[in-house]
Specification:
Blueprint: H1 3-42, H2 47-87
Length: about 90
């Protein structure tokens, strides 16, 4: 296993991690931003007002994108195991 192989695995891992985390993080960001705008406009500063809708939206995002996330993770893992002989030097 060379330095290039390690770098390749690291880049792929970070890319898959970003793709898998994006739906949940972007949903939380969007809902948090909209709630903040609402709170600023109405001057309501209730902490649960931002937490509960975010929790519900993230749960919905997980339900909607869960199959895709699992498929991406399985695909990445299969690809990694398929490349294992090459990484170990047994082409």
């Amino acid at each position: 296993m060379t330095d290039a192989d390690v770098t390749e695995i690291a880049v792929e891992t970070m890319t898959v991690g970003a793709k898998v985390a994006a739906p949940v993080l972007l949903t939380a960001l969007l809902v948090g931003f909209l709630i903040s705008l609402f709170q600023a406009a109405t001057q309501i500063q209730e902490p649960t007002l931002s937490f509960v809708p975010k929790m519900i939206a993230v749960s919905i995002a997980l339900l909607v994108t869960g199959n895709w996330v699992l498929a991406e993770m399985v695909s990445f893992t299969e690809h990694l195991f398929d490349q294992l002989p090459r990484f170990l030097g047994r082409t």
